[in-house]
């Protein structure tokens, strides 16, 4: 599981280095989540998850408020949640989650990114079966035993709890996201190094340096696309 945590760290570091792009994507995601229900995180669980994730990426309050105000107002942009699956160099697998207000724009852009960087689009289900939807939380200042005790006391169903790089990482079923969060909050923990709903590959692969360089260019090209919210893959990235 540590290898999976390494990929999550790499992904977060990449996002932290591209703040303006990340903030714009969160603005759309917050707006869409708020429009699905009430624009109040206490009554809208999907919105609460997005806001918790945004907090770990230090998304400014002004951007969050703007998206919520837009959802409360008369704006009625129609966004579609679409998932694309594909293959990169040497059998690598990629999942691309998008939010788009122009379906005719998104698929060709994703396909072009794959084609330009040694990959190919797959059909729905060709890749996703090799990934597990997972809630991931990271905290500091607590020991592994203390976190395990917290989860046991709260009767939270977790997959795994590990110590990684001076943090304790909790992996749980996606429907346990709020239960894990509340267990931590009951102990006074409200700051997380990571709070994500993600897709973790069941088996990671390693690529040779040339193939990894090509793969990284593919991931960068996909993440640069306006409609792309999340990119998941099964490659263990090495420095």
TrEMBL record:
Domain TACO1/YebC-like second and third: residue ranges: 79-235
Gene3D superfamilies tied to this protein: 1.10.10.200, 3.30.70.980
Domain of life of the source: Bacteria
Keyword Cytoplasm belongs to the record: yes
GO cellular component, one term: cytosol
Stored PANTHER family: TRANSLATIONAL ACTIVATOR OF CYTOCHROME C OXIDASE 1
Name this polypeptide is given: Probable transcriptional regulatory protein A7K91_10140
Species: Paenibacillus oryzae
């Amino acid at each position: 599981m540590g290898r999976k945590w390494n990929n999550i760290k790499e992904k977060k570091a990449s996002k932290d280095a591209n703040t303006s792009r990340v903030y714009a994507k969160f603005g759309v995601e917050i707006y869409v989540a708020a429009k699905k229900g009430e624009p109040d995180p206490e009554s809208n669980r999907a919105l609460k998850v997005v806001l918790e994730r945004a907090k770990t990426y230090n998304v400014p309050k002004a951007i969050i408020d703007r998206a919520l105000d837009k959802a409360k107002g008369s704006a009625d942009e129609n966004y579609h949640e679409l998932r694309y699956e594909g293959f990169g160099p040497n059998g690598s697998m990629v999942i691309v989650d998008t939010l788009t207000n122009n379906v005719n724009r998104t698929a060709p852009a994703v396909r072009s990114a794959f084609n330009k960087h040694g990959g190919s689009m797959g059909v729905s289900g060709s890749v996703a079966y090799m990934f597990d939807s997972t809630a991931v939380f990271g905290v500091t200042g607590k020991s592994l035993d203390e976190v395990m005790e917290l989860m046991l006391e709260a009767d939270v169903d977790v997959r795994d709890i590990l110590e990684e790089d001076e943090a304790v990482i909790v992996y749980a079923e996606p429907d346990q996201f709020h239960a894990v969060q509340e267990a931590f909050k009951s102990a006074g923990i409200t700051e997380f190094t990571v709070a994500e709903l993600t897709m973790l590959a069941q088996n990671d692969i390693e690529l040779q340096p040339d193939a990894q360089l090509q793969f990284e260019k593919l991931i960068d090209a996909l993440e640069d696309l306006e409609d792309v919210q999340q990119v998941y893959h099964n490659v263990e990235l090495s420095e």
